[in-house]
Amino acid sequence: MKLMNKLKISQVQFQASHIPALNAEILEKSFNKTLKFKPHLICTPECSNMITNDKNYLITNAPYQNTCPVLKMAKDFAKKNKITINLGSLLLKIKNQRKLVNRSYFINNNGVVEKTYDKIHMFDVKINNKEKHQESSLFQAGNEITYAKIKNIKIGMTICYDLRFPNLYRQLAKKDCSIILVPAAFTRPTGKDHWEILNRSRAIENNVFIVATGMCGNHHMNRKTYGYSLLVDPWGKIVNKTTDKPSILNSTINLLDVKKIRKKIPSLKYE
Questions:
Q1: Does residue 119 carry a catalytic annotation?
Q2: Distances in whole angstroms, Cα of residue 209 to Cα of each of 197, 219, 234
Q3: Within the chain, what is the greatest distance between any pair of CA atoms?
């Protein structure tokens, strides 16, 4: 199969609600807006089906995979429009399990789920006296490094807090991924200080394109997210970025840049 050199990517940054059916509607409208650009790949943030600060609400209202309206909509949209979609992550119940999963979905252009990735690194932090997160108390951590493919382009899958663990990105680069996806629902304090520099660092270290799609806005029970989605090239330069408002980033990338830069600085070979 011939390798594609140019890839068109649409990143959908939005302000999710705590109601999955409503998020399915919001996302479908945004997906329709990307059609003019004719993307090969549409990316969404972490928590694309629901977001809240209320643990009990989440446990009670998280859907199962087979009842999630966002997943159903995305599969139908991908099939109808022949577009690949990465749902950055869905928060889902699993039968007979107490804990939820934070799971990313790679849906091919026939509307079939080709790969799923469960977030490996749990966000257990105390940012300040007001903001604490204990993801491991609610979610089952994943343990598998995962990549998907469009044509023969390998695309690494990560989620949010994974960004702080360079070894995961190294392993994906070693598996010859040219692109690594970073769907996120970053907090505002960490976003302001760390989001851009971490994404650029992962791109530079591994000579990969980083596609970092963020959730933005104010959500259920005072959860706040940072936004500022960006796309970084393998040299660490920002190709495209947005602010803290709902928006769609359309970018065309040239995969030959990965080969060129890996020739210039062949650091992946020397360890």
A1: yes
A2: 14, 30, 5
A3: 54
* Distance, CA of 99 to CA of 77 (rounded, Å): 29
HSE-CB of 51 using CA atoms within 13 angstroms: 26
Q: Is 46 part of the annotated catalytic residue set? A: yes
With H, G, I as helix, E, B as strand and everything else as coil, classify residue 243. coil
Active site residue 160: yes
Choosing from 46, 68, 177, 216, the catalytic residue is 46
| pLDDT tens column, 27-42 | 999 999 999 999 999 9
Q: Of residues 47, 68, 93, 119, which has the active-site annotation?
A: 119
Tokens of 254: 């040239």
Q: What is the DSSP string of 76-103?
A: HHHHHHT-EEEEEEEEEB-TT-SSBEEE
Q: Is the pLDDT of residue 217 over 90?
A: yes
Helix (H, G, I), strand (E, B) or coil at 113: strand
DSSP state of 105: E
Q: Which of 47, 68, 160, 216 is catalytic?
A: 160
**Phi, psi for residue 141 in degrees, rounded to 5:** -70, 145
